[in-house]
Write a structure and sequence with these properties.
The protein has about 150 residues and is an alpha/beta fold. The chain has a 5-stranded parallel sheet with strand order 2-1-4-3-5, sandwiched between helices. Helix 1 packs parallel to helix 6, helix 2 runs antiparallel to helix 3 and helix 4 packs across helix 6.
Length: about 150
């Protein structure tokens, strides 16, 4: 199984969260190959200065090339909240699962409609870097649930 976490985020030095991200990628290895892809370019930077709508369009352009394969799941605060067992069901029976974390202005409705599913981690606002860690923990938890591993208890 392959799981991709694709995020609109500046690639930078992340000394606080990087060890946690690597930890969850490592412990998930018996169940799946997990990769994190951070996307940010001049087009996104300029669009964010123009308007929220322009920013969302730039995010869609950057992310759409990853929609071609597997199950595509966007993290969207307006979508349904799931418990860990429901989240684990999203990972079942798939060779490839792509998770998307949008930029500061979220996703266009058009991009969300192209995804297989959209889920919420709640209505609070979290930093992109922290959401990435939370998502990786939930991915690992879901994989352990699906493989009857005791971590989730």
């Amino acid at each position: 199984m392959k799981i991709n976490v694709i995020i609109i985020d500046k690639k930078g030095k992340d000394q606080l969260y990087a060890p946690l991200i690597e930890h969850y990628k490592k412990i998930a290895k018996p169940f799946a190959k997990v990769e994190v892809v951070a996307l940010f370019d001049k087009e996104i930077s300029k669009a964010q200065d123009i308007s929220p709508q322009a920013a969302q369009k730039s995010y869609s352009r950057a992310l759409e090339k990853y929609l071609g394969s597997g199950i595509n799941i966007a993290l969207d605060p307006a979508s349904k909240e799931l418990d860990s067992f429901e989240f684990a069901n999203l990972l079942k029976d798939s060779a490839t699962v792509n998770f998307y974390i949008g930029g500061a202005y979220g996703f266009e409705r058009n991009f969300l409609s192209k995804c297989t599913n959209a889920v919420s981690f709640g209505k609070i606002t979290l930093s992109h870097k922290l959401v990435k860690v939370i998502l990786l923990e939930q991915i690992f938890r879901g994989l352990t649930i699906n493989n009857n591993h005791p971590y989730h208890k």
